[in-house]
Amino acid sequence: MLVFTGSNPVHFVSFLSGTVLVIMGMTFFLMGVKLGMLPIGEAIGADLPKHGSLIFIAVVAFLLSFLTTIAEPDVRVLSSMIDSVSEDSIDRNLLLISIAFGVGFFVTASILRIVYGVSIKHLFAISYLIIILLSFFYTV
């Protein structure tokens, strides 16, 4: 194996130990998700339809996806990077809220799409039409 990698044995052992630690970390992470987060999601998903109100389900779906996006560290890093690259011409908080609103809107739209049996092609067509129309209003 060392012949194929062209590196010394110390680097190869370091690589192998790092690989084992990554596999162990992913295993523990996924086990934590399975034991901790999935039961909560299943409980919410089983309880929401019992309320019998489609509006309530849509509002809860919007709020959960909106707040999850706000709390997502990667979205915060992305908004900080865009803020630094744009030299503060795009407000970081406004960008974060816009992304979260978009995620919330489309999660709610997907739930309503499933309930009403609307084809995903129609949802994509309407979404792209809205995006194209909004692109005409952007000015630098």
3D architecture notes:
- With 140 residues, the chain is mainly alpha-helical.
- It is built from six helices and no strands.
- It starts with a helix and ends in a 5-residue tail after the last helix.
Helical region count? 6
Shape: extended
The percent of residues in helical segments reads over 70%
Q: Identify low-pLDDT runs.
A: none
Mean pLDDT: 87
Q: Quickly give the structural class.
A: mainly alpha
Q: What fraction strand?
A: under 5%
Distance between the termini: 54 Å
- Describe the main β-sheet briefly: none
Short summary of the structure?
This protein is 82% helix and 0% strand. By secondary structure, the chain is mainly α. The longest helix has 39 residues, at 9-47.
